[in-house]
Design a protein that fits this description.
Elements lengths: L19 E5 L4 H12 L4 E6 L2 H12 L2 H6 L4 E6 L5 H15 L5 E4 L19 H28 L3 E6 L27 H6 L9 H19 L5 E7 L12 H14 L3 H13 L9 E3 L2 E3 L8 H21 L12
Parallel strand pairs: 1-2, 1-4, 2-3, 4-5, 5-6, 6-7
Antiparallel strand pairs: 7-8
Helix pairs in contact: 1-9, 4-5, 5-7, 7-10
The structure holds NADP nicotinamide-adenine-dinucleotide phosphate.
The site of NADP nicotinamide-adenine-dinucleotide phosphate has 27 residues, from helix 1.
GO molecular function: oxidoreductase activity
Keywords: NADP, Oxidoreductase
Family: Belongs to the short-chain dehydrogenases/reductases (SDR) family.
Length: about 350
């Protein structure tokens, strides 16, 4: 928990001129604040990936007609596309549409949308994955891989590395994997059981820690992805906005009340929190590839990530996620290494 959050200052010369930036979950909180801030920094086009396109379009027109944007960026553009991270089919059709529309001109992908809850919910009428896993890690990971070729093509055309910035959190330090170790049968590389099945199982669901576990998995996936993506083409990083006053999460009233008091004292405004996104997208360079950024600095990840067991979890997650993704899309290209 960040008890002290420093004031964040972006370089006065920072600009996103010519950049097309896709943001998931831009209808509220940090995603919305980041859109405004990116447009104030002259982003050429923002693409919303939102589950409610009516709400998305309303927010887009409110932003574009606001005096602050009209004054600094009268040609600002926002395109609204449908994306529901609860459903793989939606991720695949969204990625198809984005690839067609933005071939060779998508510069940045900001994986911001997320969910948190104390309640276990299994999607797909009980046959799918547990919801926090699906929304926070599985769908965004598939989306990142589906859009990687477009981001790489843009980098080849412009000569400037593209970006994938994935929103993680300091709560990764509160994961449950230390107290409740993942059984070895799910970690064995050859012939081991599917680790995604473990996370769907009721026995693995620690209600107070599932959100933290999902953010630990984000940091692990980002590190693993960075091992096979060339930072000269796409810089991949994991950004924590710190503690931010938004309406995040589907939490019970008593917890919301406690959070409101605590966040009221300690948290950043969404506008200040969004500065971490602009830093991850436009200031941090290849030194942030595969890294966790907190308070706009490369920062150590949760200690488990550097242990043998953490490494095992990270590699098994990667392997089992890729297996699942290839079943959904046999044409998905998995990057093999850092070759241009
Ligand atoms: N606030 C914090 O202190 C804090 C700290 C660390 C990390 N974070 C992370 O920051 C990110 C943004 O959170 P926030 O605080 O800005 O929360 P928020 O105000 O609740 O915004 C969450 C966004 O995600 C979207 N979303 C949720 N489920 C979705 C789904 N199934 N498909 C597509 N979009 C979906 C929401 O869309 P709807 O409008 O349709 O609900 C909304 O736009 C999250 O990843 C969160 O984990 C937040």
């Amino acid at each position: 928990m960040p008890y002290f959050q420093p004031k964040l200052i972006l370089p006065p010369t920072l600009t996103f001129t010519t950049k097309t930036i896709l943001i998931t979950g831009a209808t509220a909180g940090l995603g919305l604040a980041a859109t405004t801030l990116l447009l104030q920094h002259h982003a050429s086009e923002i693409v919303f990936g939102v589950r409610n396109t009516t709400k998305g379009s309303l927010i887009a027109s409110q932003i574009l007609s606001s005096p602050q944007i009209k004054k600094v960026h009268p040609n600002a553009k926002i395109t609204v596309l449908h994306l529901d991270l609860e459903k793989y089919e939606s991720v695949l059709s969204f990625a198809r549409e984005a690839r067609e529309k933005y071939e060779g001109r998508l510069d940045m992908l900001l994986l911001n949308a997320g969910t948190g809850s104390l309640r276990r919910e299994v999607l797909g009428e009980g046959k799918g994955h547990e919801k926090t896993m699906q929304v926070n890690i599985l769908s965004p990971a598939l989306l990142a891989l589906e859009l990687l070729p477009v981001l790489e093509a843009t980098a080849r055309r412009t000569g400037v590395p593209s970006r994938i910035s994935w929103v993680g959190s300091f709560v990764q330090f509160d994961h449950s994997f230390g107290k409740i170790p993942i059984p070895e049968e799910f970690l064995a590389k050859d012939g081991g059981k599917d680790i995604l099945g473990y996370f769907d199982d009721e026995k693995s669901f620690v209600s107070m820690a599932r959100y933290s576990d999902s953010k630990l998995m984000v940091t692990m996936f980002v590190e693993q992805l960075a091992r096979v993506v060339d930072p000269e083409l796409v810089v991949v990083n994991d950004v924590s906005p710190g503690m931010v006053r938004t309406g995040f999460g589907e939490y019970p009233v008593w917890l919301r009340g406690m959070m409101a008091v605590f966040f009221g004292l300690k948290a950043r405004s969404p506008e200040d929190g969004a500065k971490t996104y602009l830093h991850a997208l436009g200031v941090a360079e290849s030194e942030s590839h595969g890294m966790y950024l907190s308070d706009n600095k490369v920062t150590d990840r949760a200690p488990i990530t550097t242990t043998p067991v953490g490494e095992k979890i990270q590699e098994k997650l990667w392997d089992d996620m890729l297996k699942e993704f290839l079943k959904l899309d046999a044409s998905l290209r998995i990057p093999k290494g850092q070759t241009v």
